[in-house]
Write a structure and sequence with these properties.
Number of helices: 13
Number of strands: 12
Strand content: 5-15%
Bound molecules: nicotinamide-adenine-dinucleotide
Order of helices and strands: HEEEEHEHHEHHEHEHEEEHEHHHH
Number of domains: 2
Oligomer: single chain
Structural class: alpha/beta
CATH class of the largest domain: Alpha Beta
Distance between the termini: 34 Å
């Protein structure tokens, strides 16, 4: 049986778990003074140093934190590979309530932990991390990317992420409708935060019929004040009679409960881990005639942005040019999925794995 992030049993010893998901390293750090408990997962470094953000979360137990770091770092391997970047997959988690535990000392101690790995892992901002936190991490290690422009970094990656999502959506429309013109299409953007709002801007410009949904009224107002869009209640998204659903809020919204209600033709959005169960829900979408643009492929614009910063040659035009490849790769993935009768997620994973294998092989020659 192929191990996916859903059927991953997460039982047995730590080494069993690492073996199951094929991790290279799992590093732990504890600091009594600051209360830091952090884990860095390094999944695969064939393409280059592992890169992925740091997340702080009040996990129910240590095993939940280990499971998260193992799954997330593995996910980064495939995202970075399919984006054509020369970086591997990694991720860090800090255990604890960010509101209570986070301090300058804790973040700097975490920075020392990252530094101690000597550059095999590069970190960035993720859930519950602020720009200020990254500044503190950066005081102790240079292996940080995705810094604000004021600190010499590349700034907010969301516009690039949204651009990639938009191109992935267009490629999927081309596959489904024979044209990538989105004008007149009823498109629901779920979650109008950073990525969602930039996506709305592009879709409105293309004269799509845009519907938005968010759990916060102020977010909705910010968008309705600027753009001509309609608003959907948060529970009305799944059964809505629209053409394209763009999840830009949470993961796992494609699940056993939501898919049966869906009338969309396409799912293409920026959220991470949209499929609750990669294989089962991916197949359900096919049975319903819904074409799914794999999330980790089309939302890779953001990691491309921070990658160029990490390489020390940040150039906005290059970042956008590289992100544009999402269109062709997405079309190729959707064609392969159809031809081989597999889910688009599986087809995208195959592209990522093949690149890692191919590049791994040439590295053996020197
Ligand atoms: P964000 O926090 O700025 O925006 C998320 C929005 O979703 C918020 O406005 C929030 O109120 C809303 N939301 C939460 N639950 C909702 C629900 N049930 N229904 C409707 N709206 C809801 O986050 P973001 O940076 O825009 O990222 C959005 C998604 O894209 C996340 O899953 C993130 O992991 C993923 N992603 C982001 C980037 C990036 O560059 N920011 C890159 C890759 C992936």
């Amino acid at each position: 049986m192929t191990v996916t992030q859903d059927n991953f049993q997460n039982s047995g010893s730590l080494f069993d778990q690492m073996q199951e998901l094929e991790h290279e390293q799992l590093a732990f750090c504890h600091d009594k003074e600051t209360g830091l408990k952090a884990i860095i997962g390094i999944h695969n470094t064939v393409l280059g140093p592992a890169m992925g953000g740091t997340r702080m979360w009040n996990y129910t137990d240590e095993q939940a934190a280990i499971r998260d770091v193992l799954r997330l770092s593995r996910g980064m391997t495939f995202k970075n590979a399919i984006a054509g970047l020369n970086i591997g997959g990694g991720k860090a988690v800090i255990i604890g309530d960010a509101k209570k535990l986070k301090s300058e000392a804790l973040m700097r101690r975490f920075g020392k932990f990252v530094e101690s790995l000597g550059g095999i892992y590069w970190t960035a901002e993720d859930v519950n991390m602020s720009t200020r936190d990254m500044e503190h991490v950066n005081m102790e290690t240079k292996y940080v990317t995705g810094l604000p422009i004021s600190m010499g970094g590349s700034g907010d990656p969301s516009p690039v992420t949204a651009y990639g999502v938009y191109l992935g959506m267009k490629a999927t429309a081309k596959k489904v409708y024979g044209t990538d013109d989105l004008s007149g299409k009823k498109i629901v953007v779920q979650g109008v935060g950073h990525v969602g709002t930039y996506l709305v801007e592009r879709l409105v410009k293309e004269n799509a019929s845009v519907y938005i949904s968010d759990i916060f009224d102020d977010k909705i107002k910010e968008v309705t004040d600027q753009y001509s869009v309609k608003v959907l209640g948060k529970d009305d998204v799944y059964g809505f009679d629209g053409d394209i659903y763009a999840p830009c809020a949470l993961g796992a919204t494609l699940n056993d409960q939501t898919i049966p209600d869906m009338k969309y033709k396409i799912v293409a959005g920026g959220a991470n881990n949209q499929l609750d169960d990669e294989l089962r829900n991916g197949r359900q979408l096919i049975e319903k005639g819904i074409v799914y643009a794999p999330d980790f492929l089309i939302n890779s614009g953001g990691i491309t942005n921070v990658y160029y910063e990490q390489q020390g040659n940040y150039n906005r035009d290059s970042v956008y040019a590289q992100t544009e490849q999402i269109y062709d790769v997405c079309l190729e993935v959707l064609d392969q999925a159809e031809k081989k009768n597999i889910t688009s997620q599986e087809a995208a994973m195959n592209v990522a794995k093949k690149r890692i294998e191919d590049i791994g092989r040439i590295k053996l020659t020197f």
